[in-house]
Design a protein that fits this description.
The chain is of the alpha/beta class and about 425 residues long. It has helices at about 5-15, 20-35, 40-45, 60-75, 95-100, 105-110, 110-115, 170-175, 180-190, 210-225, 245-260, 345-360, 405-420; strands at about 55, 80-85, 90, 110, 120-130, 135-145, 145-150, 155, 160, 195-200, 230-235, 265, 270-275, 275-280, 285, 290-295, 295-300, 330, 375-380, 385-390, 400-405. It folds into 3 domains: about 5-45, no CATH class; about 55-160 and about 300-370, FAD/NAD(P)-binding domain, CATH 3.50.50; about 165-295, FAD/NAD(P)-binding domain (3-Layer(bba) Sandwich), CATH 3.50.50.60.
């Protein structure tokens, strides 16, 4: 089956046009080279399907959804492969509950290999070292394969990197819960915490507030249940001022924290973690006996120094999730340069959009699906103070805020549904 650029051009010159018309043959060489970029046109002139190699990098929300959608939208003649450093998908929104022993490891993770293979997607467990979007090559450092993988189309979904090195002392003295192992470690530390101050917070650039507040609420309920609430203090620290136009969100959050006697310290950008204290550049300091922090996030280093990211390493994309300035490359999830927090539902929708548009490209149609940057989140307080927030970032309308026990229940149902529909 002819798929190469030179082969397509030669086909036009040798089979479509008269043998004695040299000028037209030169035009055919040019036309064939151009049509190499349009698979549907090649199908029309040559006949039969043209196989496209589609590579999805990353086994998080965005990558998994994109792979599943492409498997449904594309025919069997196309090759779909997903590369992930781990064969285990992690449902990050459930890690707070996991840390506090409210669910099991099977509730927050499942075998990605079996899921992908059952959907006609090749699965490769490997570490991506480098992407060359100009030569359409991916370098694999180690794993089930090593060396280089080539592709026709790429969906980049490798997420963000935890830049713990930006905060001296973080690695040595702080817990976080952004992986099952780290969540378990924090859970053990909670079990040993009986008096003093627990500091729960995030560093500047963390782009993820929900686990901070959910951890504070879960810890408050844990200590109240043990009868240790009077011997302990929970302090939430944030680099943000919380003096925003979203007054309803701030008011609901403050009221929920006060109901659990949780102290809130805004405008506290952590610069350093000491053995028993966190400090800012201005010299402010808060002591702790237990510390859980979310570190700064930065984009994946796999595409750094290619001129396609912002200064923090996030990929610039348009509303169709195409990487700016590049052909046949899409990006979804935490790796992209959108304002606001990095949330799972955003990655899911971006994966859907990217898959629809990539499939259109392969089939020779104009991509039309567009991503609308919208926030939808639930801060699960565990009871009647649970908060739902919806905000469309494309407009100036204030966020919609709802509260009640229903939202705690709804978040749990959504977790169960995700596991059931993607395993």
């Amino acid at each position: 089956m002819a798929t190469g650029k030179a082969t397509v051009a030669s086909y036009f010159a040798e089979n479509v046009l008269p043998e004695n018309d040299e000028d037209t043959k030169h035009k055919a060489q040019y036309l064939g080279t151009f049509l190499y970029r349009t698979p549907l046109a090649v199908n029309i002139f040559i006949g039969g399907p043209t196989m496209a190699k589609v590579l999805i990098l990353g086994g998080g929300f965005g990558g998994v959804v994109a792979a599943e959608r492409l498997a449904k939208q594309l025919g069997d003649e196309h090759q779909l492969s997903l590369v992930s450093r781990s064969r285990h998908f992690v449902f990050y929104p459930a890690l707070v509950r996991f840390a506090f022993g409210k669910c099991e490891v099977d509730d927050v993770s499942f075998d990605l290999r079996n899921t992908m293979l059952s959907r006609r997607v090749n699965f490769i467990e490997a570490e991506v070292a480098r992407v060359d979007p100009f030569q359409r090559r991916v370098t694999i450092a180690h794993g089930e394969v090593e060396g280089q993988l080539t592709y026709d189309y790429l969906i980049f979904a490798l997420g963000r990197r935890l830049a713990t090195e930006r905060i001296p002392g973080f690695f040595e003295h702080a817990h976080h819960l952004l992986s099952p192992d780290k969540a378990l470690e924090f859970g053990k530390a909670v079990a040993e915490f009986h008096e003093g101050r627990a500091v729960i917070g995030q560093c500047a650039g963390a782009r993820l507030t929900v686990p901070v507040y959910e951890t504070a609420f879960a810890l408050a309920r844990e200590l109240e249940g043990r009868g240790e609430g009077d011997r302990t203090q929970i302090t939430v620290i944030s680099p943000d001022s919380l003096r925003s136009s979203e007054e309803d969100v701030t008011e609901a959050l403050r009221a929920a924290l006060e109901a659990h006697r949780i102290e809130l310290l805004p405008d506290f950008p952590i610069e350093r973690v000491k053995p028993r204290a966190v400090t800012t550049s201005s010299g402010r300091e808060v002591d702790f006996n237990l510390l859980m922090l979310l570190p700064p996030f930065v984009g994946s280093p796999v595409v750094s120094y290619q001129g396609i990211t912002d200064k923090e390493g996030y990929l610039d994309v348009d509303a169709k999730m195409r990487v700016a300035g590049l052909e046949r490359m899409y990006a979804v999830g935490d790796c992209v340069n959108f304002n606001g927090p990095k949330l799972g539902h955003m990655a899911v929708r971006q994966g859907e959009v990217a898959a629809a548009n990539l499939a259109s490209e392969i089939e020779g149609r104009e991509p039309t699906s567009e991503y609308v940057h919208e926030l939808k989140l639930v801060i699960d307080e565990g009871g009647t103070e649970s908060i739902y927030v919806q905000k469309d970032f494309s407009g100036d309308e204030p966020a919609e805020v709802r509260q009640g026990r229903f939202w705690s229940w709804a978040k749990r149902v959504q977790e169960v549904y995700w596991q059931a529909s993607h395993k």
